[in-house]
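Q: What does the predicted 3D structure of SDR family NAD(P)-dependent oxidoreductase look like?
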Amino acid sequence: MNNVKDKVVVITGASSGIGEETVSLLSENGAKLVLGARRLDRLEKIQQKIGHNVSIKKTDVTQPDEVNALIETAYNDFGRVDVLINNAGLMPQSFLEKNKQDEWNQMIDVNIKGVLYGIGAVLPYMRKQKSGHIINLASVAGHVVFPGSAVYSGTKYAVRAITEGLRQEEAAVGSNIRTTILSPGAIDTELTDHISDKEMKQGIDEVYKDAIKPDAIARAINYAINEPEESSVNEFIIRPSSQNL
Ligand code: NDP
């Protein structure tokens, strides 16, 4: 069974880490891809590597117009959107006492509002098609809080709440739109590079010593998409086997 082949998949934050790995696996399985991120040079390299059935669009998910334009790119180039993966996110964790307001705002803008803009942009099209799938990246930090994770956890708890609300609303109207919450544990990507709080970074680096490769997350995304349309895989938590948090 290959239910991934020919599906049109839009993914934000496609320029590195989990996004890039997911693009690679889905394209191997025959999906048509539309990649968004701010670093266009990275997207161009990925596009060249894949070679066909892939469009790119410079997208900052904090800008609703740019998110709308990303979805429109999928319609213009491939005629529909079967899957939206709201993957863009950042994790500059710090202790609240440090009062890092710019980083709080960034996390809220990208991790929460970016996801909402994605949902808002794609829902009218999916409702009209009477089919679709929205996959949102949460985190283990969207299930547990620890010192230093308050704001990041807040954003990821919000992603879970929003996705569950979306699931209920779409099920109620029978729109045939599937939802998936994916909560990774420590995955080896660029995510921890942006932690400016030195004490926090040391602690996180310790947890990330056992980080696993992003292909573990790509396979889960592929599984959720590949399931038959009547089956909605609503939630995954994927940790390194040795992670106790
Ligand atoms: P990376 O840092 O490797 O990737 C993050 C991606 O988000 C980049 O492609 C970046 O692209 C994009 N991004 C950041 N800000 C914006 C923005 N304003 N607009 C558009 N894109 C943006 O980390 P991961 O691959 O690990 O992260 C992917 C998701 O997985 C995130 O939501 C993260 O919270 C979640 N996650 C990751 C875990 C991990 O351990 N790695 C654990 C739990 C959750 P660019 O800079 O080019 O815009």
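A (community wiki): The structure tokens above were generated from the sequence. The domain at 8-231 is CATH 3.40.50.720 (Rossmann fold). The pocket of NDP is lined by residues 12-13, 15-19, 37-39, 42, 59-62, 87-91, 110, 137, 139, 184, 186-187, 189-191 (CB under 6 Å).
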